[in-house]
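During the no-cost extension, the postdoctoral fellow (Dr. R.K.) reprocessed legacy sequence entries with the updated structure-token encoder. One reprocessed record is reproduced below for audit purposes.
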Amino acid sequence: MATDEVNPKAYPLADHVFTTTILEIMQQCANSKQLKKGANEATKTLNRGIAEFIVMAADAEPLEILLHLPLLCEDKNVPYVFVRSKQALGRACGVSRPVIAASVIANEGSQLKTQITNIQTSIEKLLV
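Re-encoded structure tokens follow.
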């Protein structure tokens, strides 16, 4: 698959600018321990009701390993978005490995609350 082609199942896909914004927020969330990395951890945060939003990598192989997450997100009413690169997602999560999914988790009294809310709103606009 060519690098500029993205699996059509990876919807909604953030554009370049929005991806940068998301990854910057995720970096800050990683620093303040408000981030869970990996599809399994993301699933757990959804089931526990502590996920603020979910970010998934559109280049996960096979993409099907992630596709239970959008369904779960819709059940739990949690916004979700795809970014193009698992490598970039991994870097934003503060690890050197690729990360195919990550969950930003709720934290009362967090300084990032407004930024997280802005991302949630932007993701919801993508879904319309």
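The helical segments are 16-31, 39-48, 68-76, 86-92, 113-127. Residues 56 and 101 are 4 Å apart (CA to CA). The remaining legacy entries will be reprocessed before the final report is submitted.
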